Amino acid sequence: MQALQIGAVVCAFISLLLLLIALGSDYWLENEVSYAGLWRSCVNIGFGETCVSFGMDVRDYVHATRAFMFFGMIAGAVSCIGLCGTFFSVQFGSISKAKTAAIASVVAAGCVLIAMATFTGCAGTQLSYGWSFGLGWASFPLFLITGGLAFRVNPAATE
Predict the structure, then answer these.
(1) At 38, is the secondary structure helix, strand, or coil?
(2) Where are the alpha helices (DSSP H) in the chain?
């Protein structure tokens, strides 16, 4: 059961890391001369680049993507912390840390799915998708796998 716990923690950490990198990086949409993320857009001109940070004047789907990615990040952090807590004998009443982590992972996967589907459906095809966009989608199945592993860890971690 120890290998299952370690696998769940590693998977939780990787999925959260991918989500954080996707959320903070600027390569969601790109072409030969420009790229854009959830927070700013950059244009390559000659020997440098000019970047403009987005304020509140972006399209609604960008706000929705940001919000659901943040919710996913919070749920993913709860999952990662809960799974790390399964290695310690500290118990908070009758709350199972593994079960809490499993539920949080599934919630994180749902939030990431909503965020990525919203962005995919609304961004259009004027630019090609970048590696940040791919990392966002990659975190979704990893959160599901983490949830499944955490549910399997649950019977051993309840008492």
Answers:
(1) coil
(2) 2-24, 60-85, 97-123, 131-157
Phi/psi at 94 (5° precision) = -100, 15
Q: How many CB atoms lie within 10 A of CB 96?
A: 20
Distance CA 152, CA 102 (A): 9
- Rounded to 5 degrees, what angle do the CA atoms 145, 106, 66 make? 110
pTM: 0.86
Distance CA 10, CA 27 (A): 25
Edge-first strand order for the sheet with 29-30 is 48-53, 40-45, 34-36, 29-30, 128-129
The 10s digit of each residue's pLDDT in 23-64 is 999 899 888 888 888 888 889 887 888 888 887 777 888 889
Host H or E run for residue 50: strand 48-53
